[in-house]
Amino acid sequence: MSFEAAVGEVDVTPVAPPYPSLWMGGYGWGPRGNHGAVARRLRAQCLVLWDGGVPKVMVRADLISVPRDVHQSIRSTLVDEGLVATGDFMLLASHTHSGALYGDTRPSPFVLMNLSQADVDAVNGTTSMITDALVQLVRDTLELERTPVTLAYAEGEAKIGHNRVADHGAVLDTVPVLRLDTTGGDLFAVVFGAACHPVSRGNDDVFDGEFPAVASEFVQDALGVPALFVQGTCGDQEADDPHGPATTEHLGVVLGQAVLDVLGDGGFDAVTGPVQTALTEVDLPFHADTSDPVVRASVHAKYKLRRRVMGPQSPNWRHAGLMLKLMDAGQLPTSMPMPIQRWRFGGLSILALAHEPLSSYHVNLRAAFDGNLWVMGYANECEGYVADNDTLRSGGDLHSGYEAGWNHHDPTIAGEGTFCVSYAWPGPLKFSDTATPAAGTTERIVMDTSLGLLSS
Q: Which of 46, 47, 311, 363 is the residue whose CA sits 20 to 30 A from 88?
């Protein structure tokens, strides 16, 4: 059966005025802000697919991440207005490291960059403006003229990155491509993806949609239709060196040309309706069970010690203070919520994972699933890394424990300089000490839930 489609777009590049904050996200541990330089505009795009008259809405945006409270606000606004059912709405961040700092929770602007309260208030002002723009984009796209379309899916390959965690770990070169054609046979739009950290530009103060934006513009210029980039499970996938503007251009062209090659090959599988959607949420427990008073007391003592041996200039000192404050108030979290979403078409299943999942989830889910499967990351909200069991139990032995969340032989508290510090979590996610992940540990929870959604 054919669908109806519309594509909308809005510029979300902060400019002062009217945006109150030009602070940037993507790198710690000191202040980093834009001063007006823009290499490529930051944009959000909305694809609406009407399936039997019912809209399925996908929004992708040039954002580093979306905090949980912002995601929930956007979703509830759209659902409460009756614009879309909750399972039929998907929000995706490109994870550009050259965009705006978005939100004041995870990552924590105070821990990440030692921002003052006035600066955090400004960040929230910019966050509010971008959020309003995303919601209005959905409203406006739903009002656009609907074009009857057919869908088809194929995959290509682009070598643009490496595995930064494990020398012999998976490197994801897959380029998923979903083409939308009018019923008259003309190309209408392209949705494409890759799995690679958008850090190719490096740590400067220039706003840039990064290599995904270069690729999108490359495809659009060649074909004259909208091209929407979607990020994959790139938690351990790093853009090739050397990082700098020239690398951004190069990798973007490599990715864009891979998309054009796929579109030119013609080996597409038909994608049909009806679309079946589902959205669920799991809780990923931390390795240290701080609901146990004895464990909590031990963790409290360790963070007090960290405060004594470090100074205020250290993000680890600031993080420790925040953890102590939460513990003293009885508000220390014991788990990290993780939304997982599935859109099933005839001929294609999409699985959208929240947060920063590592490549093993792409590899293992596709190995366990019979059929075309597109695994997306940074979906709906992003508040930390979700590593596989091998990476979690390695601690500081791999990439200084950054993705595992712990180091210095202590998995009960956040490792110094790890994601648990910037994202303001008390410690690493739960793992098994053995190679096979046990029930109730991170990898097992994510895999079991994902495969359950794919098979239901």
A: 363
